[in-house]
Design goal:
This protein has four helices and three strands. The protein has about 110 residues and is of the alpha+beta class. Strand 2 and strand 3 form a beta hairpin.
Length: about 110
């Protein structure tokens, strides 16, 4: 599946997605532009799937991607068990109108 460049080079894009993924898991929801929201949704879904595996290898993989250790712990202890019965679709992207300054479509990414 191809990815969006988001107007950044690969290292900047990776850093952006890592930080946004960490924020979604930490706070439960974030507001961002629509294209960024759709990209971060993919990564958050994969992190929750890792959390559902619950083994040490999955924990270390999540820890390598997330920027805060306490968020990885929260992912495995609180978030993943909540979705144990669910087969995917852990996040929701809700359109939130347009940004006042430049008219960019905004969206909210939240955990279901």
């Amino acid at each position: 599946m191809p990815h969006r460049n988001l107007g950044r080079n690969s290292s900047q894009r990776r850093a952006l997605l890592r930080n946004m993924t960490t924020s979604v898991l930490k706070y439960g929801k974030i507001e961002t532009t629509e294209p960024k929201a759709r990209e971060v949704r993919r990564v958050v879904e994969k992190m929750i799937t890792l959390g559902k595996q619950g083994n040490l290898h999955a924990y270390r993989q999540a820890l390598a991607y997330l920027t805060e250790e306490d968020v990885a712990k929260k992912l495995f202890d609180e978030i993943a068990p909540k979705y144990e019965e669910r087969q995917g679709g852990y996040t929701r992207v809700v359109k939130a109108g347009y940004r006042r300054g430049d008219g960019t479509p905004m969206a909210i990414v939240e955990l279901v």
